[in-house]
Amino acid sequence: MTTPPPTGTPFLRGVRVLDITGALAGPYATMALSDLGAEVIKVEAVDGDGMRNRVMGPDKLALPFGLTHRDKGSIAVDLKSEQGRGILRKLAQRSDILIENFRAGALQALGLGYEDLREECPNLVYCSISGFGQFGPMRDAKAVDLVAQAYGGLMSVTGSDDGELAKAGYPMSDLGCGMWGVIGVLAALLRARAGGGGAYIDVSLSDTVAGWSVWEVADYIATGEVPGPLGTAHRLTAPYQAFDCGDGRSLVIGAVERQWAKLCAVLNINLEGDARFDTEYPRFQNRHALAEILTIQFAKKPRDEWIEILRAAGIACGPVNGMDAVVDDEQYAARGMFIRDPQRHGQEIIVNTPIISDGAPRARGRAPLLGESTSALLAEIGYSDNEIDDFVADGVVTAHDRQAVHQ
Predict the structure, then answer these.
(1) Do the beta carbons of residue 56 and residue 64 sit within 8 Å?
(2) Which of 74, 122, 148, 391 could disulfide-link to 368, CB 3.0 to 4.6 Å?
(3) Is 202 a catalytic residue?
(4) Is 218 within a domain?
């Protein structure tokens, strides 16, 4: 396939998701479900999700909110009120999936936990996202991405090998936990649609990080030594890292065993007979000495020239791109990863979901206004216009189309 697939029936058409989340992990999960064709209804407080106020740049734009809440509806409701909880229960009865990321036990305390809804919503897939999960000695501890990266060991193996601590530049536990949530709810939805009933999904930031420790745990088991950071290097092979080139820009190469001889030929170096570099693992053990040799060679040409030569030889390599280069990259443009359509999306650039298929419509519209869907949803579940007006007047809900009446 060399072009995007034609548009077909969205994979999740007819699936409704209640999004009772904030920050990043939960909204990222529901964003992915929306991009796969689900109807996502964001349930937010009457004064709005806190991320609406997280503005950036000189124009003070709520960009994080806009990126992760595109194509969603919005109902603003006070879940601390009895009427608000009643509204949510009625919406849950008409939904397939509910995703929340309150502190552990918070929705249960409001009578809105999975067991509270299970009898009236027997096929509901209910997903809780939290820092440390719904049980265990750390259940009630607060966690953010930084804490999860540290707790799960990711920070201990990230960064240079000079002892300077570093976190992953992207909020990996948030994004990854959102993805695990999506995997869990889609698997559970298959069972529910097959007549097996609903399910409760428990995913956490800390488990997400620990779940990615495959290489490092293998290293620890094999050597008995606690793994440390390697900079851009690989844990088992070399050369597999970044190098500075003659123009001051950097590239990365991943010359695994089958590419080693090609790399030596391209760089015009003869290391045959040197026991330090004769096979893959010794090259890793002697990676610093090897890097010194390769650094001298890479300094002789500019980065893009080296990339062209290396790719022609079939060696995995690429530039170290800044975000400016990433959003303007031709490959990503062809793949539709960064969409520039401010009129449609309400902001300059949208970061798309990286699933390309005839059943994945991906990013289509803008983020909702606060309470944009409130009136329509309340009418759908049986409330009259007068009841909706009373809810607005009493602060039970915020309805975008009814604000002027009560100001």
Answers:
(1) yes
(2) 74
(3) no
(4) no
